[in-house]
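hey all, quick one before standup. I had two proteins in the batch that finished overnight and I want to keep them in one place so we stop losing track of which output belongs to which input. First protein below, input sequence then structure tokens straight from the run.
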Amino acid sequence: MFSSISASSVRRRGVSRFTSAVLVSGLVAMGSLGVTGAAAADEAPQHQGGAAATLDGLKTYDGAVLHADGKDQQLAAGLFEMTVDGGGKLKTYCIDIHNPTQEQAKYLETPWDQTSLGANKNAGKIRWILEHSYPQIDDLSALASAAGTGPLTEKTAAAGTQVAIWRYSDGADVDAKDAQAEKLAEWLEKSAQDASEPKASLTLEPGAVSGKAGEKLGPVTVRTDADSVTVTPPADAAASGVKITDKDGKPVTAAVNGTELYFDVPSGASDGAASLGVQATTSVPVGRAFAGVTKSQTQILAGSSDSTVSATATANWAKQGPIPALTAEKNCAKGGVDITASNKGDEEFTFELAGTEHSIAPGGSETITVPVGEDEAYDFTITGPGGFSQNFKGVLDCKTAGSTPPATEQPSSAPSPASAGGSSAGSTGDLAETGSSSATPIIAGIAIALVVLGGAAVFFLRRKNAATSGE
């Protein structure tokens, strides 16, 4: 069933009062996303920048055996492929063996601390494995020689690498079916050393700024490993007069790592908001995590073609009153979502979030952690005068299923680890198909039943009303 947290109504205290309408919803058993009733200016899942991609499925794989709960389960182990929005291809391994993927799932490049890697002391060893095995090492003879195995194929090399990763990502008792792939997995597991998290391919810090009209709002700092990024001004820049500049007011159309950008807002500009975008084509660093926009098996990057990466930042300005800037990010350590609110205005910014009222003094800032259940969808909208609206949505996916107590494991109607880790024996091997939830027929049945019941209720109510009016 749905679980929800909603803000209570806010007392009206003049136009300087801001209100927040909040809904946290998760259809845990069925994976459905709740939606707020209030319209928001931007209802896309928040993304701190980098690559966004669509899962194409499991492409290069061989067999493996998962030993769990006294049973042996057959599954496929190997490389997935993703298509990057805007162009490019990614190859990834799974770091979430007990959870399924969803067909054509959308994924976002995500910091480690916003995934199960954040609490995993062996996360660095996974990155080492990625850098010292297939496909980063595509000379299979050299890889076999280093690992002391017999001949390797692309499929067995991918399987051995995936098995070694699962032993560190999920603590799984899993073996490769092919003898040489198993030798590779053992060598990678024993040889792995700690490595640091790779930097994001592209981000803007912070993701939101605010201030008074007539000022330069910022700075917003570019963080990237690309040689150069293109800077896109606000869509209505010609009408609003807002420019993207450096600190001296010089217009900026291209930037590099460390460049500081400003929203130069004319003094006569009406109260409003704008966004800037940056984009580049680069190879995403190996070891970057990719989390599903909806509940779908978390992945880690094993290889990238030149791919499109992007990031956005917003600015909010006014002549007087509270002038907020809002950002959100998952906080796996605290089991929730951090909403950070700052205020560059001359009056308090007051809003209510998850039933608690918060006031940010002029020049102040506060981070509020809203609790969200593991695997639950969340959808927050904070609104205010002048059409101000900021929405944040996503799914909190901070743990692998193997890290939860047995009592909270998925019911038998959900996909088994055999389909979650790859494909079960005798399948086509495309996890985008075999990992799709087997609860789909149940969901459809429930939906049909609800429609029928709803129709019946309307029918009987109409009959009752007709009978009453005729008395």
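OK second protein, same deal, sequence then tokens:
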Amino acid sequence: MQIIPVIDVLKGQVVLAQGGARSSYPLLTSVLTQATTPAEVIRDLLAFHDFKTIYIADLDSIEGEPLDKAFYQSLAQQFPSLQIWLDAGIRRARQLQQAPPANNIRWVAGSETLPCEYAAAELDNWILSLDFRNGQLLGDSRWLADRAVWPLQVIAMDLDAVGRTTGPGYERLEQLKLAHPGQQWIASGGIRTKKDLARLAEMGIESVLLASALHKGILTAADLTALSGY
């Protein structure tokens, strides 16, 4: 199992997502770092564990502001061996055809902002995030029915559970896996302990996005090393 830390960036600072309105997210507080700038937070995360991939949600872009590509070019250059999954609030399939800011960045497109378009079927180096709130898919409902336009890797994003220890949405993940067994599923939201991660691994979930369990010290470096063996 691959553990992928999540960094939520708002106005150039790392904040801690807690469900609810993004504009009210507080600055990050963490047992792993005293920093709130993305580069410093990444350095401290990599000092804690040898993560291969980091997920960044640019909350300003998700809310409709232009993406600061130069910022992410610089960030990617500082960590050339790290793969960055960047959710920049993509709203059109043709945006996926545009090169990311750097070679080690991959686009993440969320159902919240991207309509289900057949043009996406021609592309494979992106990641789809199925964004759920209050049990319902955000955005275009056709995403759930039209697997033909999905990439290989798909995130099941439970926005209500982000930043909260409510537990992963096991039932939804099971349903999605049964309906779409050919996808590589990535879980996000509600992780409480390493037992949750072990259960997800047993379900065949290959990767998990998380933040709070790391920053609150719930998961140790030894836990992450052990989980990599699943």
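Flagging for whoever picks this up: The longest strand covers residues 2-10. The mean pLDDT is 90.
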